[in-house]
Amino acid sequence: MHEQTMEQLWSTSQLAGGNVAYVEELFETYLRDPNEVPEEWRSYFDQLPRVDETTSVDTPHKPIREQFLLISKNQNRLRPASQSAVSSDFERKQVKVLQLINAYRGRGHQHAKLDPLGLMEREIVPDLDLSFHGLSQADLDSQFQTGSLFIGQEEATLKEIVDALELTYCGTVGSEYMHIVNTAEQRWFQQRLESVRAHPKFGDEVKLHLLERLTAGEGLEKYLGSRYPGVKRFGLEGGESLIPLMDELIQRSGTYGAKEIVIGMAHRGRLNTLINTLGKKTSDLFDEFDGKVEFHSHGDVKYHQGFSSNVMTSGGEVHLALAFNPSHLEIVSPVVEGSVRARQDRRNDPNGDKVVPVLIHGDSAFAGQGVVMETFQLSQTRAYKTGGTIHIVINNQVGFTTSRRDDNRSTEYCTDVAKIVEAPILHVNGDDPEAVLFVTQLAVDYRNEFNKDVVIDLVCYRRRGHNEADEPSGTQPLMYAQIKKQKTTRDLYAAKLISEGVLSQDQSKELEEEYRTALDNGLHVAKSLVKEPNESLFVDWSPYLGHEWTAKADTSFELKRLQELALKQLEVPEGFSVQRQVSKILEDRRKMAAGALPINWGFAETMAYATLLDEGHSVRMTGQDVGRGTFSHRHAVLHNQKDGEPYIPLCNLKDEQPAFDLYDSTLSEEAVLAFEYGYSTTTPGALVIWEAQFGDFANGAQVVFDQFISSGEHKWGRLCGLTMLLPHGYEGQGPEHSSARLERYLQLCAEHNVQICVPTTPAQVYHMLRRQVIRPLRKPLVVMSPKSLLRHKLATSTLEELAEGQFQTVLDEIDELDPAKVKRVVMCSGKVYYDLLERRRAEELDDVAIVRLEQLYPFPADDLGVVLQKFSNLKEVYWVQEEPMNMGAWYSSQHHMRRAVADLDEKLHLEYAGRAASASPAAGYMALHLEQQEQLIRDALGLQG
Fold first, then answer.
1. DSSP 848-904
2. Of 524, 705, 728, 885, which sits 20 to 30 A from 587 (CA to CA)?
């Protein structure tokens, strides 16, 4: 008996005391053969935490090494367990039998019967042939030690061993787990798979429930097909087993104590999942098909829509959330992970026990889209782990219209990418619902046991084309010839249950009629739906609704407390050795806190975080090297020079402070930014920041900006307060390290959907960051953040500007010029301002004023008008930018600026000063860069020569 396991059993069982002997006997039986105990007990024992086999004192199945020693003892000659030490033919064959067992474990899936259509071409695997191991048919009746094979007996004939292996590894379940290096995980799978031959016995009640869920899955597709023929719905036909799979996944997760399950999926089967799993009212779906929907926003097509509901499980109420998803299929994956992490943080759930991510993929997208790999790479990192994700691949065996494997991918399975994080992969034939049920239980149990990702490859087919208007036989003639003859999963399973006597033909028909009647009546058809959900499971967004972008925010902060927080950040633990240059930065910050030194960018930025934390707002920041900052200005994380241990002063401002989460990210843009978007859409009260190493690196995440950040509110009503810091500025560092592609974000601007800011002083970044949280408006904020300004001698602020000021969308001329003498106004944003200012001062020009636009969108027309009005004798107005004419703010914002100039004087015309249009964002040669920079400064200030 496993003493630790039994101790766990008694600590969790309600049947201890007088039933000890009975339960122990049941457990012993379960260890020998799980199919021999009642189903409810098997499920209970399956969910018990596993005990490390290496510490067990009385396990019925010994490791292979111990078996070798046993053989040697029986023959009175103890020797090492290696082939060279084995002399007799029997011992040689015994070793080969053990090798055969491992061959099935590693490669049996390649002979598994996974394809419902029977068309899948399987590779010949010599390892699974007896002759490969020096065995033959003549050995089938010989008795051999079973080694670590979990079949309930220590000796068996070779035939019994092979039959057990064939059933376990070459049936309708193909399991891949031998690539996992953790021995405990391998042994866990071996026990769970081999003990029931991958096909546990289910009771009649479970089988009838499976049939009912299949009836629902098929019934909805048939109903929609007849009511809306030819209309796109990306139906689940051929993959209806997804519906009972999701039902079991949710119910079993509930028994483990899950309170929320967040689901991401693309189009295929989405409507079916909405209706049959999440409980969307059927009449609401029909209204969408009929076009009877009230338009509160631009909206999106039916099969992109999200939904949320609560269902009841034996473990309590569970909140389900299906994320909105655009046609960029797999991009929803990291968005879901971010939402899950936010929910886990809110619940103080670091292991991910209470919030479970579920991602449903298409086979070709899973293999083909790089964001899948990026998301897997996030799965065990500190910043992005969520306690393991359950991945489900709806494997139609065809990508759009491509069915040739060597066109779709370079590997045997579409799921092979999951092996980069050693995720176990459970392939299952979708036409075997009981096998689907089993692998679902296995996946949920594995995720709960090891807190790691697991993949279910639901091998099925697509009964119709890519959508219901397509004719698929033009590109897949053989596949669709077979599909036309193929009975549905529901019909096949119903026939099986009828033959077993579980139900009659009439009862089967009655199930179909009941479901259709429910659809006709427009009812909810999800069986476990909670009609009056527990609202404590929801995020309250009401404080952030209905606010205009012009809403003011008081971002001032009491000066004395500001100084106290600044000094608190300079404290380090006793014996902590700070690196020499960093020590100088901290000493300078001490002087800044005392008012003895002008405030620079790093001080102001970290003070924004400190004051928000002090006021009760949590802060999360990720990106590549954000702890230090790409340009070594932030130093929010200090590293002990003695042992390398980090210390984060912002986490130690006071007792009981909100979380300050600062993580250096993987070298990813797309998945990381999508993750942070998902996080921010679930945590409205926090400041959530993603910083690009260089602004133009965000190009790799453009789909996130296009499909989520810029349009999520108008398509789906999803508010988001995410802040993106994109370093931008022309310092002669070449095409890839200059421009953050400001023009791309401005082009996305409409209907006050995002904020685009270009702050030029420490006080501005301080108040901008504070405004993002304190103002109840929740809009994404894109910041063209500086590089050289981080240490520029003129880019400084005072303590009073932090304590008493606010973010200003337009900054007026700072020198004491006589407004009446000003003949030219130069408008600009960002670093070029300081180049213009220094040159104007050097040239002693008193008729040129410089005005900064610190917010380019929403365009601050009123604020700009107020600044321009005092220049009563203007002759010229210029817009100046460092970017080429076809980039930057010129094309996207000139109409706003022209309107402001025209309001001042209709005779005035807006002129341009800057680089000429260019295919490349910046010069690659420093000499050329300086030449261009000199020319644009001269053009802007009207200098000759």
1. EEEEEESEEES--HHHHHHHHHT-TT--EEEEEEEEETTSTTHHHHHHHHHHHHHHH
2. 728
Q: Render pLDDT for 161-189 as a digit per residue (tens, 0 to 9).
A: 999 999 999 999 999 999 999 999 999 99
The SS3 of residue 785 is strand
- d(CA 242, CA 460) in angstroms, rounded, equals 10
Q: Report yes or no: 360 and 394 within 8 Å, Cβ to Cβ.
A: yes
Separation between Cα atoms, residue 505 and residue 512, nearest integer Å:
11
3-class DSSP state of 207 = helix
Question: One-letter amino acid identity for 885?
Answer: M
Integer Cα distance of 359 and 325 in angstroms: 12
Give pLDDT tens digits for 202-260: 999 999 999 999 999 999 989 888 888 878 778 899 999 999 999 999 999 999 999 99
Which pLDDT score, from 0 to 100, does residue 472 have? 82
Question: Is 246 in contact with 309 (CB distance < 8 Å)?
Answer: no
For tokens 């119910």, the residue is 251
CA dihedral 137, 138, 141, 142 (to 10 degrees): -120
Mind giving me the DSSP string for 887-902? STTHHHHHHHHHHHHH
For tokens 């975080």, the residue is: 609
Residues written for the chain = 945
Q: What angle do CA 722, 724, 726 make, to 5 degrees?
A: 175
> 133: which DSSP letter?
G
Q: Which of 388, 35, 40, 444 is nearest to 252 (CA)?
A: 444
For 921, the 3-state DSSP assignment is coil
Q: Are residues 437 and 244 in contact, defined by beta-carbon separation less than 8 angstroms?
A: yes
CA distance 850 to 571: 41
H-type alpha helices, 556-699: 559-568, 580-593, 601-614, 670-680
> Six-digit token pair at 118?
């029977």
Q: What are the angstrom distances between the C-alpha of 302 and each of 48, 122, 263?
A: 41, 38, 16
Contact 269, 328 (CB under 8 A): no
Phi and psi dihedrals of 256, rounded to 5? -85, 0
Distance in angstroms (rounded) separating the CA atoms of residues 857 and 863? 13
Q: Cα–Cα distance between 515 and 521 in angstroms, integer?
A: 10
Tokens encoding 267: 């189009």
Structure token pair of residue 758: 């270009």
- What domains can you pick out in the chain, each with its CATH number? 3-178 (no CATH), 204-529 (3.40.50.970), 559-804 (3.40.50.12470), 810-941 (3.40.50.11610)
DSSP string, 604-623: HHHHHHHHHHHTT--EEEEE
Task: Map 418-475 to HEC letters.
Answer: HHHHCCCEEEEECCCHHHHHHHHHHHHHHHHHHCCCEEEEEECCCCCCCCCCCCHHHC
Q: Residue 13's pLDDT is what?
A: 47
Q: Which residues of the chain have pLDDT under 70?
A: 1-22, 49-87, 293-306, 403, 537, 945
CA 802 – CA 682 distance, rounded (Å) = 30
690 sits in which H/E element: strand 687-691
Helices 433-450 and 183-194, interaxial angle, to 10°?
150
Distance CA 539, CA 345 (A): 13
* Ramachandran region, residue 234 (left: φ > 0; alpha: ψ -120 to 50; beta: rest): left
DSSP sequence for 249-268: HHHHHHHTT--EEEEEE-ST
Nearest to 408 by CA among 482, 344, 476, 307: 476
Question: Which residues are CB-contacts of 401 (< 8 A; sequence separation ≥ 6)?
Answer: 466, 472, 475, 476
Q: At 54, phi and psi to the nearest 5? A: -70, -15
